[in-house]
Design goal:
The structure holds two protein chains of two kinds. Chain A is mainly α. Chain A has one domain. Helices cover 77% and strands 0% of the residues of chain A. By secondary structure, chain B is mainly α. Chain B has one domain. In chain B, 86% of the residues lie in helices and 0% in strands. Chain B is built from eight helices and no strands. In chain B, helix 1 packs across helix 5. The radius of gyration of chain B is 18 Å and the shape is globular. Classes of the chains: A mainly alpha, B mainly alpha. The interface between A and B is medium-sized, with 28 and 30 residues. Chain A: InterPro entries: Cyt_c_assembly (IPR002541), Cyt_c_biogenesis_CcsA/CcmC (IPR045062). Chain A: It holds the Pfam family Cytochrom_C_asm. Chain A: One of its GO terms (molecular function) is heme binding. Chain A: Keywords: Cytochrome c-type biogenesis, Membrane, Transmembrane, Transmembrane helix.
């Protein structure tokens, strides 16, 4: 229990945010109306994705330093999980955009950047599958992962701020904190972010342990 | 200072090899000119937005083809020899500088041919030339490392394209914006943002390449 408290906490936070996100009062804003509730489900996906990709880079660096195969396993499972979160983030964003901006794919720099960042990590998986030899694959994939990370940061956090964007906090739009997110919403939003990050880390943890068992079984 | 001497020698070797065969230069030059001509024959005249985008797409593919060769043409024995006499940092810097020179030359020729063949209305030629120069340098700094990664993986051609496109997209978005500013003849102070971010991206990419190449190098 002393080791696993964060898993319980993450589950409770996610359950709480799902229920409270649908039930609690939200500010009535023009255009957004009730769709503002998607904030609790769409935005935490990106937070979780960025955290998970950072974990992947950390373990890629560790792999290059130590050559320990397990670090490579964590990195690849973190990227796989991050991809799932990115795809769910894109899908939930498309639903939201369809109702508030009038089209599932409005020409918005943040959308395009997120899609390209997802392509970047799909390229990582393609690179991995093109190599057979395990140590070489681990090394080259780790190098590409570290190389891609700063580009991903530029894509998601720098480029959308330089142009006009529909997203809050970009292109001169004020961020959420200014008026959208009143103090009631914070009580749901922050636990949702923490909860989904916890769930993402948990998924990586489980996937990593499955991979380790599979590897052990294949060796015998 | 040993590093600078090594870079100088490696750069000299690259240029000498290229000068003897002139294979890469002539090949890419022909590629660029014929692509420009194909585009001219299929478009005839273009609105400014398309003119600009088309130019960068032509340059992008020329750059991928030119720089993909930079590590593939080295034989295994020669790589082992470099490994004995030079530091990995010197090798990657020499390659980046050589590719930057090659791309600058290539894109200058492409710009001249392109603007002669196509009707255009560039407002600020000096800024447009600067955009082309920054573009050539950015392409070479990004693609050199990618081509080093792709050359270590077996099936080079497709992998190079798959790995490099997502990485180059932020760069090319910024360059197209910068060169569009130059075409519209906007005041130069408008473009400082783009130039700043492009410089920062180049700086980051070169730094990361320097840190990572020593790991890639050893087999």
């Amino acid at each position: 229990m002393s080791k696993n408290w964060w898993k319980v906490l993450a589950s409770v936070f996610v359950l709480y945010s799902v229920v409270a996100g649908l039930l609690f009062k939200v500010p009535t804003l023009p255009i957004l109306h009730e769709s503002i509730r998607n904030l609790y489900y769409h935005v935490p996906m990106w937070f979780a994705m960025v955290v998970i990709y950072s974990v992947a880079v950390y373990y890629s660096i560790r792999y290059l330093q130590t050559g320990d195969e397990n670090h490579d396993l964590v990195a690849v499972e973190a990227v796989n999980t991050g991809l799932v979160f990115g795809l769910v983030g894109l899908a939930s964003g498309m639903v939201w955009a369809n109702y508030t901006w009038g089209a599932p794919w409005p020409n918005d720099p943040k959308l395009n950047s997120a899609a390209i960042a997802t392509l970047l990590y799909f390229a990582y998986t393609v690179l991995r599958s093109s190599l057979d030899e395990e140590q070489k694959r681990a090394k080259i994939a780790a190098i590409y992962n570290i190389f891609a990370y700063p580009i991903m940061v530029v894509l998601l956090f720098v480029l959308p701020r330089l142009t006009d964007s529909l997203h809050p906090g970009n292109g001169g739009n004020p961020g959420f904190g200014a008026y959208d997110l009143d103090s009631n919403m914070r009580f749901v939003f922050y636990p949702a972010v923490l909860g989904w990050i916890g769930i993402a880390v948990w998924i990586v943890n489980i996937r990593y342990r499955i991979r380790k068992i599979e590897n052990k079984r294949n060796q015998i | 200072m040993k590093l600078f001497a090594q870079i100088k020698h490696l750069l000299y070797k690259e240029i000498l090899l290229e000068w003897r065969s002139k294979y890469a230069f002539n090949g890419i030059l022909l590629y660029v000119v014929s692509t420009v001509f194909v585009c001219y024959l299929s478009f005839r005249s273009t609105p400014p937005l398309v003119w600009n985008a088309l130019f960068w797409i032509i340059l992008l593919f020329a750059a991928i083809n030119a720089i993909a060769k930079s590590f593939m043409q080295e034989s295994k024995g020669r790589l082992l020899y470099y490994y004995q006499i030079a530091s990995p940092q010197a090798i990657i810097i020499a390659k980046i500088i050589y590719n930057a020179l090659l791309m600058t030359l290539m894109s200058a020729v492409a710009l001249v041919v392109y603007s002669i063949v196509f009707q255009n209305n560039v407002g600020d030629w000096l800024l447009y030339a600067l955009a082309v120069l920054i573009g050539a340098i950015s392409f070479s700094s990004v693609f050199t490392m990618i081509s080093a990664i792709a050359s270590k993986a077996n099936n080079n051609g497709t992998l190079m394209a798959i790995l490099s496109f997502p990485v180059i997209i932020p760069v090319i978005i910024l360059i197209i914006k910068l060169s569009k500013n130059a075409m519209d003849g906007l005041d130069r102070s408008v473009s400082w943002d783009e130039i700043g971010v492009l410089t920062a991206i180049n700086f980051i990419v070169v730094t990361v390449s320097l840190l990572l190449f020593p790991y890639l190098w050893r087999d």
